[in-house]
Write a structure and sequence with these properties.
It contains ten helices and no strands. The protein is an all-alpha fold and 196 residues long. The relative contact order is 0.08. It has two domains: 103 residues, RNA polymerase sigma factor, region 2, helix turn helix motif (Rna Polymerase Sigma Factor, Chain: A, Orthogonal Bundle); 88 residues, PhyR, sigma-like (SL) domain (Butyryl-CoA Dehydrogenase, subunit A, domain 3), CATH 1.20.140.160. Helix content is 78%, strand content 0%.
């Protein structure tokens, strides 16, 4: 029998194994088992990760991390405590939440919100019209309340954290976050009214 045929039969046999058997084999060092688990569950892990991090590239990174974790921790799986699918989903939730905290700490979502607001404005501009994003941003910021504008500018243009802004404005972090939220909501409203 050729090597290719042997490998094909081996793969077919692996596909017939239950999740529990695959986990047991993986714990014993049979790394092919991870490929079958990945095929079975990578879409589900991606779906969970995407709902949490809201970015396809980041969700793909979470998927890779989850299956690497499973590979490393296979020996810790205890079938008496639950089924592999639930175990894998727990890794997916924990890793996705950990990634989201990292993204929030690095202002990923703040930049995403501002870019979305600008995209909404540009997508509503009629063909042939000149669109100057800096002029539009200045015009929209001019419609905010002074403190909301200050918080939005310090967040997006200076990259300051809520804590740093609170210290500069002698306000609480809660007030700063409230102003940022209200400011972004006002920007979206202004975009919608301006381009309807």
């Amino acid at each position: 029998m050729s090597l290719a045929k042997t490998l094909e039969l081996h793969s077919e046999n692996l596909c017939k194994l239950s999740d529990e058997q695959l986990m047991r084999d993986l714990a014993l060092g049979r790394h092919d088992s991870l490929t079958i688990l990945f095929d079975r569950y990578h879409r589900l892990v991606f779906s969970v990760a995407f709902r949490i991090v809201r970015d396809p590239g980041e969700a793909e990174d979470v998927v890779q991390t989850v299956f690497l974790d499973i590979f490393r921790a296979a020996a810790k799986f205890d079938p008496r405590k639950g089924i592999p699918k639930v175990w894998i989903l727990q890794y997916a939730y924990h890793r996705a939440l950990h990634r989201k905290r990292h993204l929030v700490a690095n202002h990923f979502y703040r930049w995403e919100e501002l870019e979305t607001a600008i995209e909404i404005g540009s997508s509503r501009t009629l063909p042939g019209q000149a669109f100057d994003s800096m002029r539009l941003a200045e015009e929209m910021l001019g419609k905010l309340k002074p403190r909301q504008r200050a918080v939005v500018e310090m967040t997006y243009y200076e990259g300051l954290t809520a804590e740093e802004i609170a210290e500069r404005l002698c306000e609480s972090v809660h007030v700063v976050r409230h102003d940022l939220h209200r400011g972004l909501a006002a920007l979206r409203t202004v975009f919608t009214k301006t381009h309807d």
